[in-house]
Amino acid sequence: MVFKRRDRRSVWRATAGFFWPEGGWTRAAKYVQHRVTRLPDPPHRIARGIFAGVLVTFSPFFGLHFVLAALIAKILRGNIIASLLATFVGNPLTFLAIAASSLQTGHFLLGTGRNVLEESDLSLAEKFSGAAGDLKHNFLAIFTHEKAHWDQLALFYHDVFQPYMIGGIIMGLIAGLVAYYFSLPIIMVYQKRRQAKLKAKWIALKQKAAVEDAKASHRETPPR
């Protein structure tokens, strides 16, 4: 399995590893690059998978990025493993920039005139909290006589989710295309070099085997 660990980590270690992987983010990025370039698939399929993975990191569907990346990669006939690895672009170091760019682009396209960078974090956190509160209340209202509340959910949809979704599609397509055209030639060069090394190694082994066979046949040939 590609993502299976030999040692099982505790919940605390797994949570801490999400924000700061063992060895740091540089080592984690090199590991992802190593896994992607060594995938046994044509370069264009791997690049399509990378496009799918980068695209979904700009979507507001947190928790479903793996599923969406695999689905889009399958539709595009790309490499699914590459799409899952490419979701690494969305990490605690980049989520803030991704969210801000997606929200700002969405508000610009919708013509709301909002500036996300000038909006306080507390205001955005209050919208998330209010939407979560409405969800909880409406769920409990199913089993009681309370009326459902939709005000905070509507506010969250219009101010956060809708612009994030629209802006995320645009920014995700741009970032995904950049990742596709950037990664494709790199993967092609890497695979050609790797194939050349494997071919040279195979030729050297054949030559060594031929020399050993010649020596063996010479020893077995009786003198006249």
TrEMBL record:
Annotated coiled-coil positions are none
- Give TM regions: 50-73, 80-100, 164-190
Q: Which Pfam families match?
A: DUF2062 (PF09835)
Q: Cross-referenced InterPro entries, in alphabetical order? A: DUF2062
Q: Which UniProt keywords apply?
A: Membrane, Transmembrane, Transmembrane helix
Is Transmembrane helix among the key words of this record? yes
Domain (DUF2062): give its ranges.
27-194
Q: What's the protein called, per UniProt?
A: DUF2062 domain-containing protein
Lineage runs:
Bacteria, Pseudomonadati, Pseudomonadota, Alphaproteobacteria, Rhodobacterales
